[in-house]
Amino acid sequence: QGGRGSFGLMIKTGPAAGYGATVPGSSLTPSSADAASSGGGPMTGTWTCMGVCNPAAGGNSAITLFKRVA
Fold first, then answer.
1. Which residues of 26-54 are buried (b: 16+ CB within 10 A; e: fewer)?
2. The model scores a pTM over 0.90
3. Is 5 helix (H, G, I), strand (E, B) or coil?
């Protein structure tokens, strides 16, 4: 699942997150750019949002780049 400093394109569940927000890995699942899950369960650790995502809007709006920080 990648160590600290790893980046991943993820689908986020729960509330929206903006740039710099810290989110638990349990709310992230690896994704492809077309909003399809690329398999695997929820991530572990703590991640920082590197863009903006709004799961309530659906589709690609729930996807952005995240960086693992812990």
1. ebbbbbeeeeeeeeeeebebbbbbbeebe
2. no
3. coil
